[in-house]
Each structure stands twice: as structure tokens, then as C-alpha cells.
Amino acid sequence: MNKVSTREQIITAADELFYEQGFEHTSFSDIANIVEISRGNFYYHFKTKDEILAAVIQHRVIKTQAMLDKWENDGDTPLARIICFVNILITNRSKIKLYGCPVGTLSNELAKLDHQLLNEANELFSLFRDWLKKQFLLLGQASHSDSLAMHVLAFSQGVATLANAFNDENFIKQEVKRMEQWLNDLKTTTKV
Amino acid sequence: MNKVSTREQIITAADELFYEQGFEHTSFSDIANIVEISRGNFYYHFKTKDEILAAVIQHRVIKTQAMLDKWENDGDTPLARIICFVNILITNRSKIKLYGCPVGTLSNELAKLDHQLLNEANELFSLFRDWLKKQFLLLGQASHSDSLAMHVLAFSQGVATLANAFNDENFIKQEVKRMEQWLNDLKTTTKV
DNA sequence: GTCTATAACTGGATAGAC
DNA sequence: GTCTATCCAGTTATAGAC
Questions:
Q1: How far apart are CA B152 and CA B129, in angstroms?
Q2: Is residue B90 over pLDDT 90?
């Protein structure tokens, strides 16, 4: 069992708190309390709050890329892989119900703060978008692969937002079923 | 030309700032600067920040109800009325691109703050949900009118979130077209 | 109803001892 | 690498003059 570095502990704690409480609402004390270090020590590892945010985003990018790579292997067909994506809504439903989607909510918070790291945060969306686009290309939807990728991404965002607002996990299941049906229909038609 | 009361001016300014900057990020000074009153005077009108938030939500509820009533009159058929709803995305696209949906983003922010007025904010979602449900009932979709209402609501949320993240107004137009097509198809089939 | 002054507190950030 | 002590700016909120 390796010892986890303080820096890593800070990133993990901040990652979670930024999701659950929002970036701005999370203070250095909040993070320091979880990691059980003093606020002063904090500054040895990160000089500014933005530095922590940058590290958290970087951490999420790496985790996301690893997840996409895993789906790439797990799914036998492009359709199966897209359904892997759709199913994260089910897997993460209890947290989504409480806090929404980690990607969408951070992106929106930073947009309202007019924060300089907004573009970096939106990179997470691009990872999903490009990956989905690739799958739709393989599905033979060459002419509108990007449009379909955006549609599936928008679907996931809408479901997360409403599941959060109405505190409703069942709604997630219902909509995922609808989306799977739509994806299956897509295979057999060429409708835009 | 009637003089607008200071109280009303505060509510209008707060309404806008909460949308553009978020609730927590907006300070009393921000609002006071716009209304051009001192921070001290502020407390004559509202004792706490939560009181302003409550007034802003109440204000939005009234505006929303008026808008729904207007659509009720403007649209000749239930389908036309639902399309009125979908088209707010087009009408408000420039602001949505910058700040997302005012309903969804406030709801999510308050959820993360674990704020006591979260339920009041979510009432805005319920207004739309119930109104849409009514239209789908009239469309003859008795058995899943609520599920369809939620689907259309989720659609609007997803589109707003992605339009904001990717700074893309065109995406809004594209998805609205897709939704209108889907609504038209719904009339002729009984597919869930 | 509006103002100034100020209290009470919290947040991010620094300096320097250990 | 970790700590305590401290600074400074910004925020909510109050008291009291005009």
C-alpha cells in the first residue's frame, strides 16, 4: 500500500468538493479540513486557488480519457460504445440527483464567473464530443456525426439537470431507455 | 411615465446579476452600484440576501406565468403552443450562449449550496412541466403526458448547457429544428 | 428613505519558526 | 513539509445622523 502524497490528497478532496459544493463556495479551509493539514501548509502545495482548479481539471481530463479508452475496448460495436456513454447516467445517478453533472455544472459556474480556466474546463466536453463523433462515424453517419454527438451530449446534460431539480432517479432510467431506443432506430434509418 | 420604486429596481438588477454572475458571486455592492444607492440604504429594503433571492424568484414566477398564459392564447393548437416553448431557446439564444438557462443554472447553484430556497427555485421548473403536460394531454398523449413534458424540458436544458459551453448559437437552431420534427412525428404515431 | 460609519466575520494569501 | 501567526480585501449586517 503506497502512501498517497499530500498533493494528491488535496486534488482528490478538491475534486469532490468542487463537484458537491461548487468551486467558489469551496474554501481552502474546507479542503484543508478533509486532508487534515493546516491552511498554511496548503500554500506549500498550491500558491493560488486557481492552481488547485487547474490541477483538478487536469485530473478529470486524465480520468475521463481513461474511461473513454476503457469503453473503446469494452464495446464490441460503435452502438454498444455509445450506449456505454449513455449508461454513465445510470451508474452515477445518486450523485447526479444531488449535484447534477460534474462537467456541465463546472462549465456553467466558470462561465458565470468569467473565469480564465473556462476553456480548460470545457475541454472535458470536447473529449466526449470527439469520442462520440468517432463512434457515429463508424456507425456510418458520416455527414452528421458531429451533430449526432452533440445531440447525445445535450441529452445527457438535460437529463442530469432535471434529475437534479426534481430529485428523481427514475426519470434518468426512463430517459436512458428512450435514448437507447432512438439509437437503435438510427441504425436502420438515415433520418437526420 | 411612472417612477419605478427602489425596491423594484433592486429586484430587477438582482434578477439580472443572479443570472449573469450567479447568486453567490453577486454582492450587495454589485446590486447597489447598478441601482445607484448606498449599501446602507439597501438594508432598508431587504434585511438579508436570502430575502432578495426570494423576491427575485417570486418575480420570475410571475413573469413565467404571464408568458405561459400568453402562449396559451397565441398558439392555436397544443402543438403550436409546445413549439412556442421550444422557441424561447431561439429568442433568448444570445444570453443562453453566455450564461445558460436562468432556471436550470439557478436551480443547480442552489442545490450545491444546499440553500433553503431551492424548492422555491424549482417551482419555476414545475410551472413549465405542468403547462407542457397539459398541452400533451390535449394532444391526445394521455398515458405519458408527464413523461413527454419532462422530455421536452430536458431537451431545452441540454441544449442551453451545450450552447453555453461551446458558445454556439447555431447548435440551438439545429436542435430546435430536430425537436420540431420530433413533435410533428409524435402527432402521427403513438410511440413512447 | 437615504446616507455615512463601522462592527463582525470570512476568504485568500504571506512570513517565518520548527 | 508542516505549523502558527498575521495581513488585507471583500462581504454581510447594524447604528444612527440627516
A1: 9
A2: yes
